[in-house]
Each structure stands twice: as C-alpha cells, then as structure tokens.
Amino acid sequence: MIRKRLQDLRKKMADNHVDVYYIGTNDYHMSEYISEHFKTLRYFSNFSGSLGSLIVDSENAYLFIDGRYHTQADQETEDTGITVMKLGKKGVLTASEFLIQNYKDKVVAFDGRVVSAAFVKNLIKHGLNVRSIDLYSDIYEDRPALSNDMLYELDKKYTGLTRRQKLDIVKRGLDNKTHIISNLESIAYLLNLRGNDITYTPVFLSHMIFYQNDVYLFISLDRIPEVILSELYDDGVIIRPYESFYNFISSINSSVVLIDENKISYEAYHNINKSNRIYHMRSVVEDMKTIKNKTEIENSKMAHIYDGVAMLRFIKWLKNTDMEGLNEYDVKVKANRFRLEYKAFDLSFNTIVGYNENAAMMHYSPTKEKNSPLHNSGILLIDSGGQYFEGTTDITRTLALGEVSDEIKMYYSLVLQSMFNLARVKFIEGLSGDKLDILARKDLWELGIDYRCGTGHGVGQVLSVHEMPPNIRYQKGSNNGADTPLRPGNIFSDEPGVYFEGRFGIRLENLLLCKYDELNEYGQFLSFEPVTMVPFDLDLIDKRYLDNKTVEILNSYHATVYEKVSPYLNDEEREYLKYITRAI
Amino acid sequence: MIRKRLQDLRKKMADNHVDVYYIGTNDYHMSEYISEHFKTLRYFSNFSGSLGSLIVDSENAYLFIDGRYHTQADQETEDTGITVMKLGKKGVLTASEFLIQNYKDKVVAFDGRVVSAAFVKNLIKHGLNVRSIDLYSDIYEDRPALSNDMLYELDKKYTGLTRRQKLDIVKRGLDNKTHIISNLESIAYLLNLRGNDITYTPVFLSHMIFYQNDVYLFISLDRIPEVILSELYDDGVIIRPYESFYNFISSINSSVVLIDENKISYEAYHNINKSNRIYHMRSVVEDMKTIKNKTEIENSKMAHIYDGVAMLRFIKWLKNTDMEGLNEYDVKVKANRFRLEYKAFDLSFNTIVGYNENAAMMHYSPTKEKNSPLHNSGILLIDSGGQYFEGTTDITRTLALGEVSDEIKMYYSLVLQSMFNLARVKFIEGLSGDKLDILARKDLWELGIDYRCGTGHGVGQVLSVHEMPPNIRYQKGSNNGADTPLRPGNIFSDEPGVYFEGRFGIRLENLLLCKYDELNEYGQFLSFEPVTMVPFDLDLIDKRYLDNKTVEILNSYHATVYEKVSPYLNDEEREYLKYITRAI
User: Fold this and answer.
1) In sequence order, what are the beta bridge partners of B526?
2) Burial bucket for residue B1 (CB in 10 Å: 0-12, 13-18, 19+)
3) DSSP state of B68
C-alpha cells in the first residue's frame, strides 16, 4: 500500500519536474501537536510517531526519526522500501543536512504551508533550489477533513483580562507595526476563545494579523457562534476567510512586519512583499501569555486542587486494588476516568503509564493492544494531566505496587531531593532556566547519572501543556527559551528523573509558580511555589538518602496538600489523604 | 596644576579643530593593568584609580568612574573644575553614551592607539564624527618612558610546549589566515618569553602578526638577549621595530584577517585595508593558554605548595603576634615579604588587607599613608598572590584576630560552604561558568544576600592573575567568557563572599583545576580539584551552620594541605600546620 502511494507521489513529482519531495509533521501553524488532517507523513510512510520527516526522490525514500522511535519506525516501515534514518546514531544527518548534502542541483519541493519559514530559509541559504507545491492532496485518499467545530468563550473570571484589554496591550506594544501570528495558542489566548481542533490542546485553526491598527482574524465565519461574532465585532476584530490569509499577506505594504520564523509557514513568509521591513522575533503575545495574571494564577491553583482530588482517588484505588490480572492500559483508563468524571473537560496529553522497565522509556504510553501486565510488586510511573476551565495540569508520580528494593528507594529519594532542590531556590531576578537547571541535576551528576531531557517546561493556561519560555534545561537549542529570564507569573514543570534501560524509571513532577520574594539592597529576589497538590509515595522514601532540608520541605508540602485538598473529599478519602501525607 | 594642563589641552584641541577629546585608561594593547607611561588620565585629572575616562570639551571636563572610586574621585579632583560622573548612580551615562548623546555634530577625537576598535566602532555606529589624533604627548611634561628592560625565557620545564610547537599549532589552526595579536599575555605565552613592563604581570610591550605563513614580532631589537634572538630566528619569528606595527598592518592585503575588536586598538584596526575580509573573534591563542597542559598543571601545583608555605608562615606569624600598635599596611608588607623571601619572583597583584569594615570594600588596599590600626579582636581579610616560574597564585583567607561574634562565625561558615558547593560539583562537559555560578550563591541567596561581582575568574600561568575564559558569573556581559564551556586544564578562582558596608566583609578563595571525571553512557563528566594549599581558619567555623558534606570535604581538604605542604616546613611550622588542619 505504501509502495503504491509513493509510486503515485513519484508520478506527480515527475509530472511537475520535481526531483525530491519533503514531507514533515507540521500543520499550517507549526503546532507541536497536529490534527488528523495533517498526518500526511503517516499516509505515505505508515510511521505513526509524533515527529519525523520523509524525503522521497525518484529512486528512494528516507524516513528521519529521533531516538524515541528507532524501533517503532523499523516495525512500521517494514516492507515499504523506506530507509529509516535514525537520528542520534553516529554519522546520521538530519533531514535538512541530508537535503543540503545530496540534492544540490535538484529541484527540492514541499508544501510551503506546512514547513516553517526558518526551515526553508536554511535550505535556501545553503544554495538549494526549492519550490513550494502541494503534490499530495490530489492523491491522498480518504483524507480526514479539517475540523469545523464551533469555538467557545473562556469567561473573564478565568482569563482576568478581556479580549479588548489584551488586544489593546498588543496594539500599544506594536505601535503600528504589522504582526503576523499563526501560532494557535497565541490566538486563543488573545481572543479568550477556545476550540476542539487539536486533541488535548483546546485551540482552533486560524491566523491573526495586526495591520494598520486593525486586527484581522482568519477563520471560517460559520465556526463562530452568533454572540461571539458580535462581541468580536465590538472589539474591532475583522473576520476574513481562513483560506484568504496568504492573499492578504501579499497585500501588506510599506510596513514593518514582525514574524517568528519558527512559527510561521514558508508560504506565509514568502508572500510578504519584500519592500516591507521584515523582523524575526518571538511574538510579544508569547511572553504575555506565559506571565499569568492574578486571576489566572488563582484559577490555576484551583485547577490543581481539582486535579489533586482526582489523583488522590486514583492513588487510593491503585494502592488498594489487586494488580494481578490488570495491565498498564487498564490503569491508564482508570486514571483518565478519575479526572474526566470530576472537573476536567479533557486530558492535557496522552497519559503515560509505565511499569518497571517501561518507565525507563521516556515517551512510552500503553495502548489497548500493546501494554504490560501488572503485579503486586515493583513501581509504576504515571505522567498525566487535565484541561480545566481554570487551568492546565501536568503531574508525574512514581508509585510502589508492593515491596521494592533498597536501590529503588535510594533513587526515588534522590529524585525527590533533586526536584525540591530546584523548587526551593530563592534567586536574583534575571536568571534564566539554563542557569537554574544544575540545581535539579547536581545530586544525580554526583553519582554519574543524567537524564537526557530538560528539567522543566512552561505550561499553558487552558492551552498547550508545553509552552516556552520558560524552559529549564542546560542544553543549548535555538529558540527554546532556556535563556529567557524566569518571570513572576510563569508556571512551569520541575521533573527530574532517572532512567535505567531495561530495569526501571523514576520521574517526579510538580508544577511551580514563579513569585516575587524579598526586595532589598541586593535587588529583587524571586522564588517558587508548588501548585501541584498530590502526595509523594512515602513507601518509596528512605530518609537516610535525604538531607534535613528536603525532609522539612517534604513534610511542609504534604501538610499543604492535606490542607488544600481535604475540603473536597469525603470522610474516607480524607482519612486516607491524612495517612499518606503524614510527617516523616 | 590640573587646570593648567586642561587649558594646554584645550589649546591643542582648538589648534587642531577638535571639539571634544577623550582620554581613557588603556595602553597600546588594551591591557587590564597599564605601565606608568600610559597614565595620561592621571596626568590630566589627578585621578589615580585603575579604571576611568575623561571627556574634555571647550568648556567642561567630565571624569567617569565606577562605584569603587566614587569617594576617591571626588577627593582627587577637588578644585580642578572636573565634574565627576558616578557610574551606577541613577541616570548617569557611561562615557560612550555621554559622547553619543552630547556631541552629535562635533569632532570627537582621541589617540586611536589607546582606545579599542570596539569602542570607536560603537561611536561611529551611532553617527559620531570621530578622529584619531595624539594631542597630549607634546604637552605631557616629565612623562615616564616606555620600559626598555630585557626579556627573559621561560624554560620548557615550565611551559611543557616549546615556542615552535606553539607557533605550529597556531599556524595550522589559522590555515594561512592573517591574525593580528596585540594582547600581551597571548604573545608572552606563545613565545615562552616574559618581561617586566607591567607591574605584577610579567609581560612585555609588543605586537604579533601571523601573515602568509610567517610570524612577525614587533619589538625593539635591543630588548632581546642575543641567545633568545637566535632562537627566535631559528623558530622563524621575524623581528620588526615596535613602532612599525601600524605601517605593517597597512600593507596586509588579499587576506582573511582575524582580530579581537576588544583587544586591538582602533588605530591598528583602522589601518587594515578594507579589501581584506576582517573577522572579529576571540583569539585562538587565548583559548590555548587557558587550557593548561600537563607540565603547566604540575608546575602550578608546585607553585601553590610554595605559596602554601609562605601563607602558613604568614598565618602563624599573624596568629601569634600582638596586633596592638600594628596596622593593615604592616601586615600587608609582612605578607608580601613571606612570599618574596621564599620562592616568588613577584606578587601577582597589589595585596588586599582589610580589617573589619574595610574588608567590606571589595577593592580596598591599605597604603603606608592610609590604613587602619589593628587590635586583638575582629577579623582580617587578606587577598594576595605570587608570581612563581611554576605558576601564578591568587588566594583569599579571612582570619580571626581574637574572639569574634556568633554572627561572624555563621557567615564565615556559610561562605565556606558556598565555596565548597562550587568546588565539589561533578558535571556534564559543555557547561559554562554562568550555569555553575548558582552553586556558590544559592545558600547566600536563601538569606537574601548576594555579592556584586563574579564568583570566579581564570588565572594565567606566570601571566596575568585575571584571565578569561573561564568566568564564573551569572551576570551577562559582552565578551566576558562566562558562556564559554569549562575545559579540563582550566585553572580559575572560586571566591564567594559577604560584604556588609560599615561592618565587615568575609571572602574565601581557592583556585580550582578543572579535570576529566567519569566517562559513561550519559557522557563525559568533569570535576574540580583545589590547587590552593592554605588552611581555613577553624576559629571562625561553627559546625552548626555546615552540612555534613561540607564538614567532610573541609577535613579532607585540610588533610591534603598538611600532606602537601608539611615536607617544606621546619618542625615547629609543621607542628603548627598539623594543629590548624585538625579534623573537626
């Protein structure tokens, strides 16, 4: 089937004098997660992972995937004739590097609407002969349609600022410059609207342009309820058809145009008349939305209490249920149910449940078909979160299903201490995540252990569970926000871990709120406050491996969890929470 | 007198159609410390501090100085008519900003040989009309001459690499590009030569140019001993007169020219024919010299043992002498003598001795005329170092002169722990100083205290005591090396402190060597080893304020100090060292 599809594509390529065709995993908005409509890569390669890219030439096809998917990609592309390029292995080039190295005098094409401006500019800089053309839509059979669901409003009691207030702030900041925004989270944030277009992330497909003191929103009119439409009108938002976005861009002239090349499609970028002055920068809206206002903070705290109730019920169930006969997927379903049957209107991402060695795979998630059976022993890692109108949650706990070894207790205690080492810091304003990261790692590094990922990421407000800045990681990366100073109002995750391949994995994650602390002759100090309200598993703690400060902060955290969550529980649940949050 | 001098200068300005004249504190090499010949600022302003700049226009003169010199500058410029511009105070512009803001349509002049290319390029970028002209040499009476002392050689047993080996490495790296070096430390390092031109830093005034596979050294021939001259000839180094440097530069053509705009004069930069392709970058020689080789490391350790002997004798003297009747300057002289009468051929900087509140001023150094009397109580901070053929040292200890308060013990213990928190870290290769800095600060930040300087700086090898990279500081700064990854072979200082104005100051400083640690599946780990071999004052430690790991590492450090230093002591000294390095 894949061979037939690639054959059809090659025919299209030949008809259009294209030598090489590139297919990635983006939508028109460079979103982290994409809707079914955009899963073109899966259609042509059978690869179902969340990130990858396919390069097809007249003879061969190459699938580029990272370490998470090395095994999965081999299995899914079996008998397709596709060569799997395993990024991270020695000598394996990235898709960009591969294009630059191998197709210097060829016509390299792609659909310019689903690749970023930054990606293509890099190819052009290296002398490639590029062309934007959609060669796949015609031959893509039974393609899922774009979502046409109605938008809905997030009330001011959740957002703190009205739509008009937010638009005014941006307009004042732009001072008549033109600003093109394709990023869905930014648009949903600015308009206090939400939608169902992308699983787990309540956004809707649309573009926005601030131009000559007007605000244009590109979206199908019939997706907007009457009452919101008239509000938008009152707030000065001019609606244009979703598809007219690219044409509109062509008409912009004599302006300073601000774009983020990583978050705008090449097609959009290419359509900007070059007589304008174009500047690449992170959108001011992104910084605005990562600094939660007082109302958002209060709501987020409420969301985390609701989440704490659901998680407490889950932990109580897990710890008091015979695991024999159950598997990881059963537990995942159960955990999701506790959230959705209480206050969450959705999950915030695909729940991760990993038993023992499965937890050592950072992105493992069980399915109905593929999972491991559980027993009344060992440890279970659960990383999950919910979408509430009050906020978005993301929390990881590792839990004992029975007796565990001393080694596991040692590592659990160490990860707990590492998490608190970051959580309890007080620091001078101006520090960025790359300078704080070492706090969560130093005790692991002392043993010669590291985790191959960041320590933490920003979390959206009724938006994507990944939002950057802030970003807590020492690893350098372009545009990843790790060098952006932490700001009061940032909410972000603190999630160190240990991962021993084939043996076990332990991760613990709280979300932290960045707050003002002391202001004195040395400057403004900041510190963090945990917003996650879920107990840690005392069955996995060995006090010998904790320093005094960690014991102190753990007991104080547990006391707070009890205080905040217990009012929402019945007597039996409260009794149980009291027990598992006892001081040690 | 100053008024007369400024009057002469204004006459010169008028004769040459110059509206504004700028005088800074650089030599022809953009050195951190300068020789007497270059103290033009002092001649025209009476200001004797190490850093400052003077702007003279037809009416007024402005002296720009930083926080260290606010009081001193007022005193020294009394009755001169000069306005003191106190940097750091609200609304006070830097000299550059002041020039840009106030002299848009004027002719702004300076001696282009003693200002950096970066400084002038910034003025030009902001539209200033600049001109390079020496207006002061003619009217500068009794100006100290340039040094004409002979150079001397540093033997291969100290340098590890021969001159020819070093030159070959640079040539290979340059691959026929042209490289202009005015930095004195880089030249002394490359040639394995030293001189006496700058107090405390054993370098000699000269420039070097790598051009068309040849190496040119610009220096007066008669400063080079016969035997070295013939070696230089054998090693392919072509000698040219010191003054011919600027003319030589004009003759460079059709080349790629590498310069560091911060370490080359504007005159030199300006003379480069712009048909060459000019690139600004940190010199490869600077990175080479900060990565000490095996021989240099062994020698440096030896130098630090010698330094430990001198410091032990000093501490023994201090702790067993009646302080009544003595002052800070007496102690400074005594400390210097212990070094110079043992193995040091020079000091590495002007010794800092501060008693109680004087130690809270970071750059305080007593003189014969200005010092404070000592008593048998309170604390004394001494920050000092020596130049040995084996290496350069820099060490700070704070010592009790008698009974001290509980508060002082608390802060001393905290600073000690902070120093060890950085010293004991094990970390992934690739981390830069700005990401490690938090380790030395977090325990102080927890109390809402900070020190307004970096935690540490690189230290040269028989060169300047300040050498960057590495640089351990969270504060951003252009070109300060804080974002350069730590490398095995780096030797740098670890010197946190607390400074309470008008009360007391505590600083503790060890030099650390960066070394390879474990290599495993997570990557290459690095760690530090202390090279400084001087005990900490147990009279100032209160164990209640130390965590267990700090006590452990302190005892182990003291055991090492005893083991390394005791073989060089007499019985009485050894006995004393044994006592003050006892385990606690």
Assistant:
1) B427, B516
2) exposed
3) G
| Measured CA angle at B210 (ends B204, B211), to 5 deg | 140
Chain A residues touching B524 at Cβ < 8 A: none
Q: What is the DSSP letter of A522?
A: T
Query: Could you read off the pLDDT of A216-261 as tens digits, one per residue?
Result: 999 999 999 999 999 999 999 999 999 999 999 999 998 999 999 9
Do B285 and B190 touch, CB atoms closer than 8 A? yes
Interface touch A438/B442, C-beta < 8 Å: no
- Flag whether pLDDT at A560 surpasses 80: yes
Q: Which of B266, B263, B262 is nearest to B115 (CA)?
A: B266
Distance from the Cα of A277 to chain B's closest Cα (Å) equals: 20
DSSP state of A137: G
- pLDDT band of residue B469 (cuts 50, 70, 90) is very high
Q: Are A192 and A231 in contact (CB under 8 A)?
A: no
Tokens of A210: 């601030």
Confidence of residue B344 (pLDDT cuts 50, 70, 90): very high
The gap between the terminal CA atoms of chain A, to the nearest Å, is 60
Residue A478: is its pLDDT beyond 70?
Answer: no
pLDDT at B477 > cutoff 80: no
Q: Are A296 and A387 in contact (CB under 8 A)?
A: no
d(CA A335, CA A315): 9
CA-CA-CA-CA torsion for B333, B338, B340, B344, nearest 10 degrees?
-130
What are the φ/ψ torsions at residue B502 (nearest 5 degrees)?
A: 75, 0
Residue B422: pLDDT band with limits 50, 70, 90:
very high
Q: Among partner residues A435, A449, A452, which is closest to B474 by beta-carbon distance?
A: A435
Is the pLDDT reported for residue B222 higher than 90?
yes
What's the whole-number mean pLDDT along residues B343-348? 98
Q: Which residues contact B227 (CB under 8 A, 6 or more apart)?
A: none
* Dist CA A195 CA B447 (whole Å): 46
Residues of B in contact with A446 (CB under 8 A): 425-426
Asked whether B456 and B492 are in contact (CB, 8 A), the reply is yes
Contact by Cβ (8 Å): B449, B498: yes
Q: What confidence score (pLDDT) does residue A551 get?
A: 98
Quick one: which of A511, A56, A117, A456 has its CA closest to A307? A511
* Average pLDDT value for residue range A262-284: 96
The pTM for the full model equals 0.93
- Put simply, whether A519 touches B (Cβ < 8 Å) is no
CB contact under 8 A, B445 and A525: yes
**pLDDT above 80 (res B428):** yes
B483 Ramachandran zone, left/alpha/beta (phi>0; psi -120 to 50) = alpha
Q: Which of A273, A268, A276, A272 is nearest to A132 (CA)?
A: A268
Tell me if B273 sits within 8 A of B256, measured CB to CB: no
- How far apart are the C-alpha atoms of A160 and A81, rounded to whole Å? 54
Q: Distance between CA atoms of A271 and B462, rounded to whole angstroms?
A: 60
- Joined together, the tokens standing for residue B265 give 């004069």
Chain B residues lying within 8 Å of A442, measured CB to CB: 425-427, 439
Q: What is the pLDDT of residue B68?
A: 83
Residue among B96, B33, B40, B38 at smallest CA distance from B64: B96
**pLDDT tens track for B557-567:** 999 999 999 99
> What is the side-by-side order of every strand in the sheet holding B391-392?
B346-347, B386-388, B391-392
401-440 in chain A: CB under 8 A from chain B: 425-428, 430-431, 434-439
Q: Is A319 within 8 Å of A435 (Cβ atoms)?
A: no
CA distance linking residue B190 with residue B208, whole number of Å? 10
What mean pLDDT value characterizes chain B?
A: 96
Evaluate if residue B397 carries a pLDDT over 90: yes
